[in-house]
């Protein structure tokens, strides 16, 4: 079965009402119908009917979606636009379309990095987020050993045909090391691995932090940027920690997979809107990647792992 056929029901259920458009951060940035949620569904239908060619330009455009799912919340028949976009990406990648360099370098890192898992029951996978969360976990006495492994979520998010092979490699390495639990602070890595790694429990780092074990490392008021990826996975621990120990003045629109995925024009507009909405307040992000992007844009931002510290 061609990948796009897995979402045929979604493609046929769209009424083209456009209620989803204003909720889409990418459409608001580009104002291009082809990059609106409705446009994604129409393009998926075009692939299904073999009316569209699998060109590199098409793949580039379909990669310019953060998979945030905000459009799904606004859609009356609840079309699963994220699944449509992922299926279209798989379809295009399988048909030989080449990703733009902003994504290609993420995929190279996922494909080329060695997977080295230490012998331990609980293993930390850094994903694209780094080891700030690991340092907090260790300070709290959580017994966890860091692995040296590249993030695999970019392969899944780009629809790369190599994802399943790399996943099998990781699964085998975890089994050989005797790992029973994987902890990551990367919301996308959690998404890519949680339902797919057999016999291993995959958790977000915030889920193993006791609420009474940490306190705020930030004195001032904060604006909080949650992760819609975590919310869509039903993980509320990061939100609970931030709301209970920081002085959150406002919450910003949650973010999906933006950093490295969106084109510069869309990303810079989204970042600008976010900084304006924060209104000179430091932005605390559930994802270290989002904090990094905001800092690169000159905003005052920090990740959840920089905003909390163990109770001494
Ligand atoms: S995806 Fe949903 S909200 Fe958007 S045009 Fe289709 S039916 Fe309407
Ligand atoms: S998932 Fe997010 S970025 Fe993608 S079409 Fe929907 S609202 Fe837009």
Tag the structure with descriptive keywords.
4-stranded parallel β-sheet; 10 strands; 312 residues; Rossmann fold; binds iron/sulfur cluster; Fumarate Reductase Iron-sulfur Protein, Chain B, domain 2; 16 helices; alpha/beta; 45% helix; single chain
Describe this structure in words.
This protein is an alpha/beta fold. It has helices at residues 8-13, 25-30, 37-48, 56-63, 70-74, 81-94, 101-112, 132-139, 153-158, 163-176, 187-193, 228-232, 237-245, 264-278, 288-296, 304-307; strands spanning 122-125, 145-146, 181-184, 201-204, 214-216, 222-225, 248-251, 282-285, 301-303, 308-310. 45% of the residues lie in helices and 11% in strands. Helix 3 crosses helix 6 (81-94). It starts with 7 loop residues before the first helix and ends with a strand.
Question: Summary?
Answer:
The protein is an alpha/beta fold. The chain is 45% helix and 11% strand.
Helix and strand pattern: HHHHHHHEHEHHEHEEEHHEHEHEHE
Within the CATH hierarchy, at the fold level, what is the topology of the largest domain?
Answer: Rossmann fold
Estimated helix fraction: 40-55%
| Structural domains: how many | 3
Percent strand equals 5-15%
**Main β-sheet, in a few words?**
4 strands, parallel
Ligand species? iron/sulfur cluster
Structural class: alpha/beta
Over the alpha carbons, how many angstroms does the gyration radius reach?
A: 20 Å
Record field, number of beta strands = 10
- Major sheet: order of its strands? 2-1-3-4
Task: Provide the CATH architecture of the largest domain.
Answer: 3-Layer(aba) Sandwich
Number of helices: 16
The low-confidence parts are: none
């Amino acid at each position: 079965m061609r990948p796009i056929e897995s979402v045929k029901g979604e493609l046929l259920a769209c009424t083209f009402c456009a209620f989803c458009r204003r909720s889409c951060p990418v459409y608001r940035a580009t104002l291009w119908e082809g990059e609106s949620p409705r446009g994604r569904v129409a393009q998926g239908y075009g692939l299904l009917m073999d009316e569209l060619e699998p060109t590199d330009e098409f793949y580039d455009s379909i990669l310019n979606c953060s998979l945030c799912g905000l459009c799904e919340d606004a859609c009356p028949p609840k079309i699963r636009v994220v699944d449509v976009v992922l299926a279209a990406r798989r379809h295009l990648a399988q048909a030989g379309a080449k990703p733009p360099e902003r994504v290609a370098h993420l995929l190279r890192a996922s494909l080329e990095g060695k997977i080295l898992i230490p012998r331990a029951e609980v293993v930390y996978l850094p994903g694209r987020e780094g080891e700030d969360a690991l340092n907090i976990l260790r300070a709290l006495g959580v017994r966890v050993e860091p692995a040296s492994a590249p993030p695999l979520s970019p392969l899944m998010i780009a629809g790369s045909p190599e994802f399943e092979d790399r996943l099998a490699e990781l699964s085998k390495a975890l089994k050989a090391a005797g790992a029973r639990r994987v902890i990551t602070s990367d919301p996308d890595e959690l998404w890519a691995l949680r339902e797919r790694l057999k016999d291993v429990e995959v958790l977000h780092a915030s889920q193993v932090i006791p609420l009474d074990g940490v306190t705020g490392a930030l004195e001032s008021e904060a604006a909080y940027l949650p992760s819609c990826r975590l919310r869509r996975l039903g993980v509320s621990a990061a939100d609970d920690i931030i709301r209970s120990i920081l002085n959150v003045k406002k919450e910003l629109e949650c973010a999906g997979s933006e950093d490295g995925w969106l084109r510069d024009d869309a990303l810079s507009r989204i970042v600008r809107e976010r900084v304006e909405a924060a209104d000179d307040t430091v932005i605390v992000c559930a994802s270290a990647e989002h904090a990094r992007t905001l800092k690169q844009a000159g905003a005052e931002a920090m990740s959840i792992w920089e905003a909390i510290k163990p109770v001494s």
